[in-house]
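tokens incoming
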């Protein structure tokens, strides 16, 4: 598992070598959107006494 994540976390080498790093940013954006959606769902289910 950690070996597979090194591809995603090795963006600085891609930038320094002039390689494409767009796929890494796309994966990061997708993970962020998913986590944001989960956070909204959890927040809506909570009954906060305001």
């Amino acid at each position: 598992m950690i070996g597979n994540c090194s591809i995603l976390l090795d963006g600085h080498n891609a930038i320094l070598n002039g390689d494409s790093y767009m796929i890494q940013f796309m994966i990061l954006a997708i993970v962020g959107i998913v986590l944001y959606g989960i956070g909204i769902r959890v927040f809506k289910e909570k009954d906060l006494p305001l």
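note: The longest helix spans residues 22-45.
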